[in-house]
Amino acid sequence: MASQEIDALTSALARLPGFGPRSARRAVLHLVKKREGALAPLRAALVAVEERLATCGICGNVDTTDPCGICTDPRRDDRALCVVEDVSDLWALDRSRLFPGRFHVLGGRLSALEGIRPEDLAIDSLLARVAGGGVDEVVLAMNATLEGQTTAHYLAERLEKFPVRLTQLAHGLPVGGELDYLDEGTLAQALRARRPVA
Amino acid sequence: MASQEIDALTSALARLPGFGPRSARRAVLHLVKKREGALAPLRAALVAVEERLATCGICGNVDTTDPCGICTDPRRDDRALCVVEDVSDLWALDRSRLFPGRFHVLGGRLSALEGIRPEDLAIDSLLARVAGGGVDEVVLAMNATLEGQTTAHYLAERLEKFPVRLTQLAHGLPVGGELDYLDEGTLAQALRARRPVA
Ligand SMILES: [Zn+2]
Ligand SMILES: [Zn+2]
């Protein structure tokens, strides 16, 4: 075996998080043995996502439409806005189905170490959304890391002047924990017990 | 988020061996965030493999050419033929780079329980290859399972009439072990110490 094409597929899979060379080989073997049942559907799904992939101009979510499905969902509550560091956090919170409002993706967190400053994050667009009115509560759903909490404090200062309630996720999050790695039960608890920013 | 296309991609990945819903979600997120660096290469690799996928008419290997790369490799030794149950076993042995000859994939093993009989396996084509001459040694590289060893014994009887040396992998394989799960060192040892069938 080891044709150029099969090697390329193995390498591409091996670079996915959670995959290594060995599991990639097993996956490739599964794919080539189940051409109709596994390879074709995966190829079709990848092509469809790639063709339609878009970053939402409103919230920064990655979806197959712009604006994204969350921003255009009429059942969602415009009055609650949940700010997250990353798209993965948005997805994690959205899966919990406990937050009925909209989201805003910063695209990272402030980091002196990595030289990430406020102007590197989607903060101006956040302030514009809040300034636009109609928002009652902003949930600062940063990771429970030092940098995440620094970012939350920075945002709290910038948002102080607006007539909105600032809340953050309950400190039930494990210290150093990243939202995206938490089970949905922990996330649900943290979201239910969210409290005003001190 | 959870657009139809992204859900479909998550499901397709979650069905790969070694993947579950959670790791599939992380992989999808990685793909949508690295459209050029991860999604496009994976899509291209899948398309290329799917377009060219073929089962070798000589040995039963799955490759992007028919005959496969092993059957057409002029550096390989026609005199040694290694018979394996499955394509995954061929790939595992081929990775060890210790077997210089050709392969033959049976497509399974005899199983009274599952009703798999000799005529369900690529045994006639194996006998034809050996009858064609030029083969000095046939390695019966079945799995070290009861069914694998039953299959090896059956093949040994069918091949008895040919002037070939029948060998099997050294019994260093863990009992019940499947070739494809072994590390390459164990495989290499078993292949180096292969011995005549008693
Ligand atoms: Zn959006
Ligand atoms: Zn072949």
From TrEMBL, chains A, B:
One of its GO terms (biological process) is DNA repair. Gene3D superfamilies: 3.40.1360.10, 6.10.250.240, RecR Domain 1. It comes from Sphingomonas adhaesiva. The keyword Zinc-finger applies. May play a role in DNA repair. It seems to be involved in an RecBC-independent recombinational process of DNA repair. It may act with RecF and RecO. The keyword Zinc applies. This is Recombination protein RecR. InterPro entries: DNA_Rcmb_RecR, Rcmb_RecR, Rcmb_RecR_Znf, TOPRIM_dom, TOPRIM_RecR. One of its GO terms (molecular function) is DNA binding. Belongs to the RecR family. Keywords: DNA damage, DNA recombination, DNA repair, Metal-binding, Zinc, Zinc-finger.
